[in-house]
Alpha/beta hydrolase (Paenibacillus aurantiacus), 282 residues
Amino acid sequence: MALAHVEFFAETLGLQSSIDVILPERSRRRVGLESADVSPPYPVLYLLHGASDNHTCWQRFSSIERYAADKGLVVVMPAVQYSFYSDMKQGFPYWTYLTEELPEIVRAFFPVSDQREDTFAAGLSMGGYGAFKLGIRQPERFAAVASLSGSLSQRSRIVTDPNAGFHNPILFEMARLTFGSAEAYDGSEHDLAHVLEGRIKEGARLPKFYQACGTADFNLDINRNFHRQFAGRVDLTYLETTDAGHEWHYWDTAIQDVLDWLPIRRASADGEHDSNGDERGE
């Protein structure tokens, strides 16, 4: 795999921004690292960081580059600070950046597909919320989205005492700056369960969902509640790992399962695509 560090001016944010990008390499000569025999345009995975992380953490604390080597896809890791992948009430419009400007920048710099069937999102914690937010609010653009230890509801961060427990008080303050009050959050575009209920009622073509959490994770109840609400109503894969907490050892393992689960299409010599080795119709 090739690794690109990209610095650029984001017009939407009015400031310099960063992405790290993992790309397939044509050479298959590297010892000990299998490479997929694929050609551009490549499928693309937007891999999202957690609240206290940035665009470098997936590479620093997991082996994502090695795991993605035989998948034949581009992995884009953007930096969004403590934005909850949202247009903040008091702050920057990171949702607009993520959904409008960033895809155009990625396609301008790298040979990625613009097809829904080739576009995915995944993330951990706040990034799991962001990945599901992309799939729920823009189902026409994403074929599959995955959440690991996802904070799939942000309401508790608005109403809970920020000094309770081990949580970082800065995270609670940023949630309030992003969403405002609990009343403003409930039933809004940020309330994923509310938006997904609306999508189901509309009969929208939804992506595949992958949801995983450890039983020792403080986000477990949030994940169980989401699963109970939508199991059997959407294409949702749900996994719990016994005793796994909110930590990188778990995410490093879980992201491998996500990559295997993604419905990645492979282009054949005649231009047809298949997924997981099977012929797939459009």
